[in-house]
Amino acid sequence: MAMKRYTHLLKPFQIKNVKFKNRMAKTSQWFVYPEPDGSVGERLKAFYASIAKGGVGLVIVEESSCEYSLGVSRMPHIRVDDDRFLPGLRELARVIHAYDCPAFVQITHAGPAHSPFDGQAPVAPSSIDPPAQPGFALARELDVEKIKDIIERYARAALRVKEAEFDGCEIHLGHYALGNAFLSRIQNKRRDEYGCDTLQNRARFGREIIERTRELAGPDFVVGVRLSAKEWGHPLGTTNEEAVEFARIFEKAGADYIQSSGYGYNEFFRCWAPDAVLFPEVPRAAKSFAARIPKGALLPEAAAIKKAVSIPVTGVGRLDADIGEKALRQGNIDMVWLGRRLMVDPAYPRKVAEGRIRDIRPCTGCLFCFSHLLTTTPVRCRWNPFLGNEHELGCDGTEFNPAPVKKRVLVVGAGPGGMEAARVAALRGHEVFLYDREKRLGGLLLLASFIKGRDFDDVALSLEWYERQLGRQKNLQVVLGKEVDPGLVKEISPDTVILSPGSKWELPEIPGTEGRNVVTASLLKEKAKGFLDHLGTDVMSYLSKVYLPIGKRVIVVGGDLKGLEAALFLVKRGRKVFIVEEGETLGEGMNEHLKSKFFPWMEAHGGITAYTGVRCNEITPEGMVVTTREGEHTTLKADTVMIIEKVKKNHDLYDAIKGAVPEVYVIGDAKEDRSVWIHGAVHDGARAGFSV
Ligand SMILES: Cc1cc2nc3c(=O)[nH]c(=O)nc-3n(C[C@H](O)[C@H](O)[C@H](O)COP(=O)(O)OP(=O)(O)OC[C@H]3O[C@@H](n4cnc5c(N)ncnc54)[C@H](O)[C@@H]3O)c2cc1C
Ligand SMILES: Cc1cc2nc3c(=O)[nH]c(=O)nc-3n(C[C@H](O)[C@H](O)[C@H](O)COP(=O)(O)O)c2cc1C
Ligand code: SF4
Asked: Which ligand is nearest to the CA of 74?
């Protein structure tokens, strides 16, 4: 079945003498897993082994720097600038090859993306003030001598990669790296032979790297190029027509393939992950780009390159097996580069080959992973707790060794924490009972998916996946609509209890909370429950756009992630919203990437006004009396006051059963007086299920 549906995707391919068992490749992604000095360690090897084991046709090892420290954006990046890193690199090639999977290394120089962690300002073709992308440091202009030195470093790094027995390299000339800065008129203002006067001059840096690499590494070593096939959102951005010419130049210089990506500024910020333009609202300028996402937003530009060159062209950007298969069939690309799909499920290619499409763990597009790069912390995936922990746990989450002792495991609560704990415990062979007092699986995911909708971060996709996975485990019994109390625990007589009952919600002490104009999150949850059970989140989400029993002006009390999402939900339904937050900051729980999108949007939109450091004195029929941080007493006028309750730990059942059951875990939101959010619950669940 899968063989027929994915004939093109599963067809072997080759570049030069390097053979791939299918057309899927792991794209280059820096995950902050290398050792502090830039060498390859156990964590990195275990991660890449897991990807190769999953059946992908080719691995591109993440961006690796040809010069230290100017060529590194931030540490720890893999260093390919010195022979002393060769032993680790060899080991890395070996662990990937062990799964019959070839590997290339992406070689880069950060250029303008270098952060001055070493006290040195970045280097670029030109010094642009302010830098083209906000948040980056002001760069110094490179002189020709240094440009030639960097070209040599690229080529030497490629040779080193070859000596480490990799099958090829990918020269990074895309995104915000130095290679792209020469190609782009946004950053290249030079008038010399590397300058912006002609396409040939703009391409000279890249061309000379390819030529010198070929000279050093020989004719058989694969030398690919990653290119931004278009720079979106800036009048001086590289056009697709220009990128097509660059691809032609690089082909002539000896490149073996073109990896066609994209890059963006302003409304298109981070559009190399095309879905990043969707949150919190698609800007007018990006509407047609957003409409392309389901078909592969960056593919039309890749297809234009493909028409112009005879070497293979590969596509990337929120692709999956279906989009990829279609693009291959239409002849628009030759291979499909995958990133996040493999992060959330490294066995994606194997499952495609085996026809187990519905078993593939979905990437909801939350960009929780990416936000780690902004804080230079090891990347984690919200839904795949094993990513990056393969070495520590001795497991990549795609296969489990049976538990040495089979136990009866009772899991209380079928939110994300409980579902993951039950899934993992069952996969390890335990006899598992998953109970929830509600009639549906999901816990707060149901309400979250209703509020969030499906356009961005499609939580419902994950919930549907859990429903399928839990349903197919014969040693896992799901019991819904049944509250677990100490009596039931005694009756079931488990060896282990995993408690994931979620938090308790506490109403803040504000006079007037009993007023008719007040709605609380728990009340909404209760009211929505029956409808959500019968109509589902999609229908409810649609209906709420037509009818919502909430006034036109709404005060939302509480400015954490839930408060911001509630505000966004209301604004998208025509309400004017005031957020009042007693703390100093907004957005606790929202990932750093989303914050960087949400707050500028909020400022520009005007539909949400937020007050932090506010004391809520009283709710009145007119709205709410508050004391501002400046000490001013004022009434915020509103028709409705929506209270997002404070979360409190939930240890009641734990206190009642501890001592009576040999092994008890408390996980997820129940643990402490603060939310651990979906990722915390899922990660806790996996660890508990894995520890039993
Ligand atoms: C509107 C909204 C939007 C949100 N958006 C996001 C978001 O974008 N990103 C994010 O990371 N987080 C978000 N969250 C928070 C996230 O949903 C929670 O942090 C997460 O669901 C906690 O998971 P959990 O498994 O610990 O508990 P829960 O999801 O709360 O599940 C607990 C389950 O236990 C059951 N239960 C409790 N006691 C018993 C008992 N004695 N017997 C049987 N069953 C019992 C409950 O019925 C419930 O189903 C949002 C929450 C809300 C309300
Ligand atoms: C966490 C993360 C790290 C990334 N690191 C790199 C990198 O090192 N070099 C690079 O060229 N692109 C990098 N990218 C971009 C990816 O290669 C890819 O283009 C992007 O993830 C879109 O593909 P996807 O939708 O399949 O994830 C990164 C993306 C993510 C999410
Ligand atoms: S963190 Fe979110 S966006 Fe990133 S791979 Fe996981 S599910 Fe996808």
From this structure: 2
pLDDT at 2 over 70: no
State the average pLDDT over residues 238-245: 98
- SS3 state at 224: strand
Tokens of 379: 């990347």
Strands 623-627 and 633-637: antiparallel
pLDDT, residue 12, reads 98
Which whole-number Å values give the CA distances from 23 to 15, 52, 260, 353, in the listed order? 11, 14, 15, 11
Atom of ligand 1 nearest to the CA of 566: 1
pTM as predicted: 0.97
Q: Is 344 in the pocket of ligand 3 (CB under 6 A)?
A: yes
At 3 the pLDDT is 66
Query: pLDDT band at residue 529, thresholds of 50, 70 and 90?
Result: confident
Question: pLDDT tens, 119-128?
Answer: 999 999 999 9
Q: How far apart are CA 111 and CA 123, in angstroms?
A: 5
530-546 mean pLDDT: 81
Contacts 24+ apart (CB under 8 A), 319-323: 321/6, 321/9, 321/24, 321/348, 321/352, 321/357, 323/294, 323/295, 323/296, 323/299
Q: DSSP readout, 12-48?
A: -EEETTEEESSSEEEPP---S-S-TTS---HHHHHHH
Which bound ligand lies closest to the C-alpha atom of 28?
2
Determine the atom of ligand 3 nearest the C-alpha atom of 368: 1
On the question of pLDDT at 1 being above 60, the answer is no
The pick from 24, 28, 105 for probing ligand 2's pocket by mutation, whose C-beta has the most ligand atoms within 8 angstroms, reads: 28
Q: Ligand 2, from 24, 30, 66: best to mutate by most atoms within 8 Å of Cβ? A: 30
Helical spans, DSSP H, in 580-651: 592-605
Per DSSP (E only), the strands in 117-184 are 123-124, 140-141, 168-173
